[in-house]
DNA sequence: GCCCATCTCCCGGTCAGTGGAAACGACTCT
DNA sequence: AGAGTCGTTTCCACTGACCGGGAGATGGGC
């Protein structure tokens, strides 16, 4: 992958070195992983430090700085959706005793904008900021089912990544699942990401009635889902109302 | 304020136009508010769109893009502190029935990295991403009391902003309050930001024993604080342990 | 249809950014 | 104490990415 010529491109390539698996890096690692020459990397890092987009710890490791977090907190997904949804997610956790998640669609991914945990609940792999493919998650099935037809066709035409032996990988199976989600008004994701979890997801709509997010709880495999379905759908409607949905 | 000469400086100045009060803006607004010429603004905005750092809606208004939120979610304050603290904050809300907050210090500000709300609790002005001066908040008093002496002296030497008639504005009063926080191991903030709220805050320590955050609940003015003090201190210790504190 | 505001695009000029090389600092080993 | 290694920092001649005024395009309101 060639290094971008533009300065902004280089800065974002540098920032892109950080991930959940690598939340910090040395200067040399940043240079090596971004493909930028060492002195170029040094200059960019110095300026990103000045703008608080990066921080440096006592041992010379760099990590994402507070300023990027603050800027990110101004995104509509955070400032509007997530802040309004939080009280309802807390209700959902309290009522169902399971972990709750809120996700939006970005391309063919579900991006988790919040995850609240319940005491003693089955653990989940996502955290705020995680991405998972749409087809393999409850929230993703809801988001895809209500996405523009073009997005659905693109998803059906793309390789569908397998996570467990039960992950939906056949386009025909996915198409059928999406139709069922639209009929039912919710999705149940059965052992798609891990063999130990179900998830139950429902849509969240905005003032225009568009599905802009999905909310879910994650249950242990084999748990009864009917009460969870009711709770999640109710939560989805409450969040929708908070967003101004009719 | 002159426009920075560096491209990164200009980009951050542009992004700095966005705030909680102004989460979106048109191209012309971005140019006017940042001080950048229109065509310069247009070029920068176009590239920030490409990198998903900005988004544009159907009516031509720009807002912070998902990529900045994702990058920000990788900051230590979010990925390490906030993700680990969330379950304990949820516990605190459930037990005390009050809104809970988690904040870190940045200069002379308390930056709220999380705020969970309780049903029917007194509302609070902060949200994730908000800043308030240290001296005027419970979390801020805790963070300042345990900050390096140089930071404390700087705060004492700086103008102390008044929010209510009870806000601490005299350096001597603040010094005394900080000493008491260190003695007690917690802070009670009495009608400092609004006349209708107290807050009770306790420290959160890292593996090295340093105070890296503070947790609080917000009570209506006049409410008994003793039970809240116990709950908040217990929560602070639990989060500390999750961060590897001894 | 006209006016106005906003947005988009062009392109000659220039200075902010480039990156290899040298110097510096910290650490380890003998 | 000295040598070697590794990572970081600094320098500076060169250059092309960026600059931004101005012309044109677009869309909304009257």
Automatic annotation (TrEMBL), chains A, B:
GO terms in the biological process aspect are: negative regulation of DNA-templated transcription
Q: Which Gene3D superfamilies is this protein grouped with? A: 3.30.450.40, Winged helix-like DNA-binding domain superfamily/Winged helix DNA-binding domain
Q: Which UniProt keywords apply?
A: DNA-binding, Transcription, Transcription regulation
Ranges for domain HTH iclR-type come to 5-66
UniProt GO molecular function = DNA binding; DNA-binding transcription factor activity
Q: Give the highest taxon in the source lineage.
A: Bacteria
Leader sequence range is none
Q: Where is the IclR-ED domain?
A: 67-245
PANTHER family per record: HELIX-TURN-HELIX TRANSCRIPTIONAL REGULATOR, ICLR FAMILY, HTH-TYPE TRANSCRIPTIONAL REPRESSOR ALLR
Name the UniProt record assigns to this protein: IclR family transcriptional regulator
Upper lineage is: Bacteria, Bacillati, Actinomycetota, Actinomycetes, Pseudonocardiales
